Amino acid sequence: MLPINSLPFPTLIVDRMLHIKGMSPSALRLFGSVTQFSDILDAGSILKRQRLLDETLTEPIEMNLKTNKDEQELFAVSVTWTGEEGIIQCFGLGKKIEKIMTAVQEHQNRLAHVDFELLSQKEVAEKQLVQIKQLSAPIIPLSKHVALVPLFGHLDQDLIVNTQERLSAELYERNFTIVVFDFNGIEVITDFGMNQFQELIETFQIMGIQPYIVGIKPKHTGLLKHYERGLTTYLTTLQEAISLLT
């Protein structure tokens, strides 16, 4: 069985029937003791279950999962298969992002109808968009010196600009020496975003932090080749990232 006890985010080990063979402590606290992944799927997500068995699946699936508090929360669910065993990762998109997205939409609607509120409402919307970008790059400690940073949405200039200061400061202050960027949740990569990301990688190198990248999709490999300078290492699976703990 894969070593998942040290992972702070909800992680499950399943077989081909999606029977749960192991759960990380965070998954156990969130979902309770369950034996079948289908038991935590809500009715609207049950039809997506079969997609998890597809070994060619490269993008996370948004699913509503039931917690042990009998509540439904939105997660980005990805799976990696090794033989007959799969590791399911559940990254919470959560109520916080939903509330912020709703607030942003409400502010945008007001901007279209109330001219005298234009400046103040625009400032509020921009601040909340920055919050969304910051939530798209959380720092998850895998060990004392290894951190995982899952990225979501668009890898663009805004994502890097709004997160680089926080990432650099927190990684340094917490004495991390290795950072693994998980691209599984990235849908679009822009040239400006990659230029900014390359500069961020170089900054980490100067700080003595070794960067790794995991979860590259086939559609992104062509673009990433133009930015390879030997500054970072690409990993093929999350299991390789977990191996950095040993």
Instruction: Tell me which CATH architecture of the largest domain applies here.
Output: 2-Layer Sandwich
Neighbour order of strands in the largest sheet: 2-1-5-4-3
CATH class of the largest domain: Alpha Beta
> Spans of 5+ residues with little confidence (pLDDT < 50)?
none
Q: What fraction, in percent, of the residue positions are helical?
A: 25-40%
**Number of β-strand runs:** 10
- Gap between N and C termini: 16 Å
Largest sheet: 5 strands, antiparallel
| CATH homology-level superfamily of the largest domain | STAS domain
Descriptive account of the structure:
It is built from 8 helices and 10 strands. By secondary structure, the chain is α/β, with parallel strands linked by helices. The protein folds into 3 domains: 11-92, Beta-Lactamase (2-Layer Sandwich), CATH 3.30.450; 95-134, no CATH class; 136-243, 2-Layer Sandwich (Transcription Regulator spoIIAA). It holds the Pfam family STAS. Residues 136-219 form the STAS domain. It comes from Paenisporosarcina macmurdoensis. This is STAS domain-containing protein.
